[in-house]
Sialic acid-binding Ig-like lectin 14 (Clupea harengus), 435 residues
Amino acid sequence: MKHEMYQVNTGSVSLLHLLATAVSCSDYSVNMPPTLETTHGSCIFIPCSFTAKDSSVRSPATGVWRKGSQWFKDGVDVFNSSKRQNKLHGKILGDLTQGNCTSVLYNVTRDYEDKYFFRLEWGDEKVTFPENVLIKVNDAPPKPHLSSPQPLQEGTPARMTCAVASHCPQDPPTLAWSPNLNHSMETLQTKEDGTQEVISVLSLIPSHWEDGLNVSCVATHRLQRQGSISFQETVPLTVLYGPKNLSVSLNTSRVGMGSPVTLICFGASNPPINNYRWFRDTSGYQEEMDWKYQNVTFNVTSSTTGTYHCEGRNTVGASNSSRLQLEMPASSHVKPGWWLLGGCILFFTIVAAFLCHRHKKAETQQQRGRRPEHTGRVADHSIYINVTEDTLCRAASAPDEPCDNVYCNQLPPNSIRPKQRDFLSQTDDAIYANH
Ligand SMILES: *[C@@H]1O[C@H](CO)[C@@H](O)[C@H](O)[C@H]1NC(C)=O
Ligand SMILES: *[C@@H]1O[C@H](CO)[C@@H](O)[C@H](O)[C@H]1NC(C)=O
Ligand SMILES: *[C@@H]1O[C@H](CO)[C@@H](O)[C@H](O)[C@H]1NC(C)=O
Ligand SMILES: *[C@@H]1O[C@H](CO)[C@@H](O)[C@H](O)[C@H]1NC(C)=O
Ligand SMILES: *[C@@H]1O[C@H](CO)[C@@H](O)[C@H](O)[C@H]1NC(C)=O
Ligand SMILES: *[C@@H]1O[C@H](CO)[C@@H](O)[C@H](O)[C@H]1NC(C)=O
Ligand SMILES: *[C@@H]1O[C@H](CO)[C@@H](O)[C@H](O)[C@H]1NC(C)=O
Ligand SMILES: *[C@@H]1O[C@H](CO)[C@@H](O)[C@H](O)[C@H]1NC(C)=O
Ligand SMILES: *[C@@H]1O[C@H](CO)[C@@H](O)[C@H](O)[C@H]1NC(C)=O
Ligand SMILES: *[C@@H]1O[C@H](CO)[C@@H](O)[C@H](O)[C@H]1NC(C)=O
């Protein structure tokens, strides 16, 4: 039981030495992790408990941390709870009379990396436990560990967890998320082996915006000797979502009668769309086309007119695209702008004619009134591509060009990632129809 005394008095008698150790093992035992790690200049929290079978520990009791060896001769007592001055500042946090020897040692430097033994002294009893803890002193503080269930499903609540070891209960590291997607909860938790860690839980409802987003957890440690230092771990989010913002576009800006045209169905999704369907509306009748691919090519003829849309499907879901109208008017077309101009001229002419008639000059004025009808004439076989009514209005006011072609000023889509959304919103713009 009194190892110290055996050792001091009978240091050369190894048999007694062994015997003493054997006795101590059965009567006393201490429980602490075999290894602990800390950072140079930081403190170390040592979870520790012991049992003293036959005798209960009375107050006042002294706790000593001995470095290097169980024996006084070979070790160094770095901390003695009954002394004011110690090699290392420290504190016995636990209640020794309850068998709790949990301790903290401050300002641990690299020189203090070693095995540590706990020694208990109360009344006449003195015991140094044979079990020890190896304290490793690292140059850098611990890095955070970020865990996230991946892939995330759009709209399904998810939790991301960031944890970092806390060696120093007085000064635990802080955790922060970047970008800060939602309020997070930070707690100091005790692990099974008694060591502590700071945990931050981020709850989020993933949206497709967050697909591909890099999320970081930053751990900031304040060191007793070196200021503060931060480490981060970054995880790219994968958010699965069904096809979104599907639209049909043309691969070309200029479509001519009889020339090939390629319709492209594109939008954003993760995973990529693996199944396409195409539909065409012609005068209220809808048919599903015999096309299974993202891009379809055909020659423009009178029988290819209609309103096209596609359906895209991936493992998450399906959606339909906006509509693209491919039209080939059978007869002449007059642009609304000209009708308006013609109408205005006609109106004022009639008013003028009416006024003139009252002044008996009706015949000459009515001659001028027919002029607009000639300017309204356009060539046959023109094609226009119409995405929205709004487009049509703008197309109508576009500069006139004598051409049988359609100018469809769309850019070819080159990607279906969400980053293309700016482009997607522009595709309806800038379509010029000419007659
Ligand atoms: C711890 O300090 C007390 C008070 O100074 C002293 O009586 C005791 O012997 C010390 N223990 C060791 C192991 O040095
Ligand atoms: C030992 O003491 C520490 C510090 O007061 C405390 O956190 C821990 O819960 C105690 N352990 C037990 C087993 O009571
Ligand atoms: C740790 O060491 C620094 C610098 O030597 C000192 O200012 C600080 O008070 C010490 N902290 C403790 C808890 O001993
Ligand atoms: C933010 O977190 C709370 C729970 O902490 C959760 O109820 C809420 O839905 C989350 N909001 C978003 C937008 O993820
Ligand atoms: C996320 O991080 C990786 C690796 O650092 C980088 O290659 C990628 O461009 C980042 N993604 C975004 C959206 O910033
Ligand atoms: C559009 O696709 C058709 C068929 O593949 C091709 O002949 C034509 O050159 C393409 N136009 C452009 C501008 O890429
Ligand atoms: C389109 O017309 C060209 C001749 O202009 C012809 O060679 C080609 O086979 C046609 N393509 C289709 C898909 O009908
Ligand atoms: C897409 O449109 C077609 C035809 O109108 C329809 O049958 C289909 O159910 C639509 N798909 C979705 C996902 O709404
Ligand atoms: C469809 O056309 C787009 C734009 O030209 C191209 O990026 C894409 O690779 C094509 N897809 C297929 C399946 O050919
Ligand atoms: C779809 O378009 C809407 C409106 O332009 C935009 O808010 C949304 O982010 C787009 N979605 C994707 C996946 O690009």
User: Anything to note?
Assistant: Residues 145-237 form a domain with the Immunoglobulin-like fold (CATH 2.60.40.10).
